[in-house]
Design brief:
The complex is a heterodimer. Chain A is α+β, with helices and mostly antiparallel strands. Chain A is 57% helix and 15% strand. Chain A is globular, with a radius of gyration of 19 Å. The model of chain A has no long low-confidence stretch (mean pLDDT 83). Chain B has 15 helices and no strands. Chain B is globular and about 75 Å long. The chains are: A alpha+beta, B mainly alpha.
């Protein structure tokens, strides 16, 4: 499945949702969790993940703590109170959107019966 | 889980640097991310070389450069207010120097305006930074540095206008700056992680811009100095701009050292702490100018040059560059000889060994060989600026 184009607009929400469920996470952990939850259907690239993390951090939605793990700096992200509110809003918006999408797609699968077929 | 060796990590760091990842916070994250990736593959039975090949093969061309570009664009948007003022200040510094060269009126006024541009840029950048990063500590320490810088500029502004009180303003600035630098050095020394430190956090965002600012000013000044020497040696009109570079470069040097001390535990020790204090004390006192005896200032410049060279080389990440070692050895010797000449302990002709055009060209070009955004490059910028300042004595 070429999911890239679908995922692009939802990565922010996915990240917020994951961070809302975890005390803190680091970049690699986020990509692994997404892959695991999606049955390897969604693979976040570095390019998809980090600019969004930095953007959310710069908007005050995330705070970071760096710890030295295995002799290298590991940056953990967690939600600020504003970030938690945003996570709720974004998840709710995405759920509404996917529901609408489901209805639209389901509707398209129904056979189209129209009186126009009989020339009315 | 298998762990990468120091050598393997170094190889990865070099790969990331070679891929254009110059923004250190992002590079550190990539280092951790790719390391995790490699370690997981090695746990599945691959050798390091096999894991390396398969991991790198999955990374598209210019991927890291693109990430860095996108990340920097995101970060830059936050600080966009200060950027136009920085460029305005830069432009005014150029125009003011040009007017001075041409002996046209208005050079002093424009220089003052450029100081105002730098001041507004500093204030907007730091105040926005404090507002947007309430979770980080150190707003007062940031403002103390900013206040110190503003008073220093006000002092030199008063000097340009020949107003009374210039020396008092500069003295006050030096006291505030010494206090602020001491407080920051202590904070960095005592705290395990630099993540919560607003000052170094903000500085990291601005570092590439600050370095660019210095280099854009420095090279034309070097060319102008050489040209001016062919005519009237006393006619060089760029000394005040050089002072801006030296002063800004000094502050940049301290901030870069703090950041390294925050991130590399091995670099945070009593020796680097003491060296930093010696360096910023000698640096700031030099700016007191005639308030301090001439001989003492000369000795302080020699101390600064030697101590900063050692610290810059010590702070450099592995593998250290040969050019860094050369600079760390050459500049202190140059300023030691220069100091002895100015103290009249040796004859002025000894200066000709170091203060000549080939050396000037080599040193100026050598700046670009130093690692970007590192203390050594800043040390060389400061030293080269000072070298230009004193080039007239050759």
């Amino acid at each position: 499945m070429s999911s890239g184009e679908f995922i692009r607009g939802t990565i922010k929400t996915i990240i917020l949702k994951l961070l809302a469920q975890n005390r803190h996470m680091y970049g690699y952990e986020i990509t692994q969790r997404v892959a695991e939850l999606s049955g390897d259907g969604i693979k976040l690239t570095y390019g998809a993940l980090y600019p969004i993390l930095y953007k959310l951090e710069s908007e005050g939605m995330l705070i970071t703590v760096t710890e030295i793990v295995d002799n290298r700096a590991r940056k953990y992200y967690s939600l600020t109170p504003e970030g938690k509110k945003l996570a709720k809003v974004k998840v709710s918006e995405l759920q509404r959107f996917t529901e609408m999408l489901r209805i639209i797609l389901a509707d398209q699968t129904k056979p189209k019966v129209s009186l126009k077929l009989w020339g009315n | 889980m298998g762990k990468l060796t120091e050598e393997q990590r170094t190889r990865l760091t070099e790969f990331l640097l070679g891929s254009g990842l110059t923004f250190k916070p992002l590079r550190d994250e990539m280092l951790d991310h790719v390391s995790c990736d490699l370690e997981v593959r090695m746990d599945k039975g691959l050798s390091f070389e096999q894991a390396w090949s398969s991991t790198i093969a999955e990374i598209p061309d210019n991927h890291f450069q693109q990430i860095q570009k996108e990340t920097m664009e995101t970060i830059d948007k936050r600080f966009s207010l200060s950027t136009p003022f920085s460029y305005l200040a830069l432009g005014l510094l150029f125009v003011s120097t040009t007017l001075k060269i041409m002996h046209f009126p208005g050079a002093g006024e424009l220089l003052l305006l450029s100081f105002a541009g730098i001041a507004i840029s500093l204030l907007t950048g730091s105040l926005t930074g404090i507002k947007l990063n309430k979770e980080k500590k150190g707003g007062m320490r940031v403002m103390a540095v900013v206040v110190g810088v503003l008073f220093m500029m006000a002092g030199y502004g008063f000097k340009i206008l020949h107003l009374p009180g210039a020396d008092q303003l500069i003295a006050f600035s030096v006291v505030v700056l010494i206090g602020a630098l001491l407080a920051n050095t202590l904070y960095v020394y005592r705290n395990a992680s630099g993540e919560g430190n607003l000052l170094t956090y903000l500085h990291e965002k601005y570092t590439p811009g600050i370095e660019r600012f210095f280099l854009i000013l420095l090279y034309p000044l070097a060319a102008y100095k050489v040209i001016s020497l062919t005519g009237d040696p006393a006619g060089f009109a760029g000394n005040l701009v050089l002072l801006v570079i030296l002063f800004g470069g000094g502050l940049q040097f301290f901030a870069l050292c703090w950041r390294i001390m925050e991130k590399d535990l091995t670099k945070r020790n009593p020796v680097s702490f003491a060296a930093l204090i010696i360096i910023f004390l000698s640096f700031n006192i030099i700016f007191l100018g005639p308030l301090v005896a001439f001989q003492i200032r000369i000795v302080l410049i020699m101390v600064f040059s030697a101590a900063a060279a050692v610290l810059a080389y010590y702070m450099e990440s592995e593998p250290k560059r040969v050019t860094s070692l050369i600079f760390a050895l050459v500049f202190p010797v140059i300023f030691f000889v220069w100091g002895l000449i100015r103290l009249q302990l040796i004859h002025v002709s000894a200066g000709a060994v170091f203060f000549n055009l080939p050396v000037l060209v080599l040193l100026g070009g050598g700046i670009l060989l130093c690692r970007k955004h590192g203390p050594m490059r800043t040390y060389v910028i400061i030293s080269f600026g000072s070298y230009l300042f004193e080039y007239i004595y050759s």
